[in-house]
Amino acid sequence: MIRKALLVVAFVTALLAVSAPTTGFAASGYNGVAAAAYADTYWQRYNSAYPSFANSGGDCTNFVSQALFAGGITMRLSPPNSGNAAWYMVKSKRQWSYALPWVNAQDNSIFALQHLPGVTQVASYYGVAPGQKVADNATQGDIVLYDFNNDGVYDHEGIVVANDGTSWDLVDAHTNNRYHAYWTLASYNASWATTRIVVLHIPATTS
Q1: pLDDT at 3 (0 to 100)
Q2: Which residue among 140, 141, 157, 165 has its CA within the 20 to 30 Å range from the CA of 70?
Q3: 3-class DSSP string for the chain
Q4: Is 96 domain-assigned?
Q5: Which pTM was predicted?
Q6: What is the mean pLDDT of the chain?
Q7: CA dist., res. 119 & res. 201, Å (int)
């Protein structure tokens, strides 16, 4: 009986070991501090545990998704999820599999607003000029989305990571790599006059 019980325990342990990398982890809530710490660590030194899209369309959303996952947002696998309700990046043997919302800013915005409980839009601006200060109403770990030509499709994404002394308005981003940049990114954006910027707040109860 003891040997049989040990075999059962070993079998269950093996099953958990196989499934763990593809299911993410059971999160109790979103930790914006942890998400920001991840972004500060990998804003320039990319995490080798993930693929990079810097040379194939841009790595901005992939980077933000990694930070959100580090902050406690649980992967949504497909199946059972589909379309913009799925959000994951997993590796099977030598091949990566991922959902579009993990790597695409527009799809990630839909995932966040429609499939992450409690996420709300807290700021929206159009044509913010370089040097202009505007309130983002954000907290650490929130998402910033950029629509460069105001056509309703987001082209870029960053994550709020730091406080400049008055509010949480400094972001990290990939492609191009940014560290603690003022959240509008207008100083780096030649299309600032036609850019719409939106901030999504992720509450601590989201997972």
Answers
A1: 36
A2: 165
A3: CHHHHHHHHHHHHHHHHHHHHHHCCCCCCCCHHHHHHHHHHHCCCCCCCCCCCCCCCCCHHHHHHHHHHHCCCCCECCCCCCHHHCECEEEECCEEEECHHHHCHHHHHHHHHHHCCCCEEEEEEECCCCCCCCCCCCCCCCEEEEECCCCCCCCEEEEEEEECCCCEEEEEECCCCEEEEECCCHHHCCCHHHCEEEEEECCCCCC
A4: yes
A5: 0.86
A6: 88
A7: 6
Residue 103 within any structural domain of the chain: yes
Q: Which has more pLDDT, 92 or 63?
A: 63
- The torsion angles phi and psi of 128, rounded to 5 degrees, stand at -70, 125
Kindly state whether residue 87 falls inside one of the protein's structural domains.
Answer: yes
Q: How many domains are contained in the chain?
A: 1
Q: Is 51 exposed, middle or buried (0-12, 13-18, 19+ CB in 10 A)?
A: middle
Q: What's the rounded mean pLDDT across residues 41-60?
A: 95
Round to whole Å and give the CA distance between 171 and 36: 9
Q: 16: which residues sit within 8 A by CB, 6+ positions away?
A: none
Domain that holds residue 108: 47-201
